[in-house]
Amino acid sequence: MVADGSAAPPSERRPLRVAIIGAGPAGIFAADALTRQDDVPVAVDLIDRLPTPFGLVRHGIAPDHPKMRAIRETLHRSLDQPLVRFVGNVDVGVDLSLEELRAHVDAVVYTYGSAVDRRLGIEGEDLPGSLAATDVVAWYTGHPDADRKRIEAALSDARSVVVVGVGNVALDVARVLARAPEELEPTDMPQHVLDALAAAPVQEVTVLGRRGPAQASFTTQELRELDEMTAATVLVDPAELELDPASEERAAADRVVGRNLGVLRGWAGHAPEPGRVPLRLRFFRRPVRLVGEDRVTGLEVERTAVDGDGRAVGTGELELLPADLVVRSVGYRGTPLPGLPVDERSGTVPHDGTGRVLRDGALAPGEYVAGWIKRGPSGVVGTNKHDARETVDALLADAADGTLAVRGGTDDLVTTLRARGAQPVLLEDWRAIDAAEVALGASRGRARTTMHEREALLAAIRSATT
């Protein structure tokens, strides 16, 4: 804000201050796009609730995907930009309100993702032994908020596992549970996760899809990785690969679907092998209820058919699958920050299509959205780059035509947070955490071991500064 309290165009002396809420791929890509352009002077605060950056790249991609997880090295370079300041361990809505944040900056970009699971909505879903994939993934990636006790209790008796869903996350969960302990040992999983997985008595894993293989949403690379495990055999019923004309047409028109079907048909001749975990991919089954009294003992499913619109239609034919553990992986949804609207049906922030936030149907000046909380949980990590670029283009256009100008106060956000007793984690602090994780991994013969407790993460910072 200029001396007389009015708005002014951004300048090198007083750049446009942008807060990005969420330091995952969408947020980092947005920060990178903002600071690599020369038309509008900007300074970015990249805010995250966790003390660590990278979002789902750190706490969403399975740790046995080292090549995929290596993308964080690329993201890290964006954090080194002098006009980008990482501000972790700050919970907007708790440490400061959204209204207070808006008073410090000229624009806010919401990129905090969609981290809450969608439920099946069936009887027995709350029984012990019924878990959300979001919770399982948080646990095996070392998320500070993971419910370790509940996950490990469910795993301790899990001989038969059913994973409901046919997306990449469902395949990740199935693969991690079916892997031999020695396959997971080199990963950066926390030690307690490796110990629990090694002790779990898993004897069979089933991945269940409501519709057919032509409607499954996994990628071919993710699918092929199932066949690379040393202690599991992928099994597919050839009869479930027979497609109706509409599905055949879909496979012919969509190269990913066609490649997936080729992989699945290559597995149709597989048979169970002694000493190996059978990992079954089953289609045309939808959950009806979870069976059990004190905990899950089975999953009742209904046989389905796919109608002309690609929807699963029940046939009335029921089947009971043995299951000590059922993991639902049927999608993510976004939740609102205090003071920010989120559409209950879509789980996204209302916007105009380019990333400009809408409040009560009207454009909200200085508010933008990118990533999953903008478009829903779709695409791969790289999809966020184009998405963030679109939103940044809208923000820069608003700055160019005067819709967006220098209006925020002059107080420093980090100084204000510290004065309130918050403990913001900056880039040099994150480097201390990073070094501590590398050192912990080296002590166990690994490249890294993820530290999962928030207090341990903050202790690593204190140790580096004393």
What does this structure look like?
Helix content is 34%, strand content 20%. The chain is of the alpha/beta class. It folds into two domains: 192 residues, NAD(P)-binding Rossmann-like Domain (Rossmann fold, 3-Layer(aba) Sandwich); 214 residues, FAD/NAD(P)-binding domain (3-Layer(bba) Sandwich). The strands form four sheets. It has a six-stranded mixed β-sheet with strand order 3-2-1-4-17-16, with helices on both faces. The longest helix is centred in the C-terminal third of the chain and has 18 residues. The N terminus is likely disordered.
In short:
This protein has 466 residues and is α/β, with parallel strands linked by helices. The chain has 18 helices and 17 strands.
Report the β-strand fraction as a percent range.
Answer: 15-25%
Task: Name the CATH superfamily assignment of the largest domain.
Answer: FAD/NAD(P)-binding domain
Instruction: Determine the structural class based on helices, strands and strand pairing.
Output: alpha/beta
- How far apart the termini lie comes to 38 Å
Residue windows where pLDDT falls under 50 for at least 5 positions = 1-5
Number of helices: 18
CATH topology of the largest domain: FAD/NAD(P)-binding domain
What is the rounded Rg? Answer: 24 Å
How much helicity do the residues have? 25-40%
- List the strand order in the largest sheet: 3-2-1-4-17-16
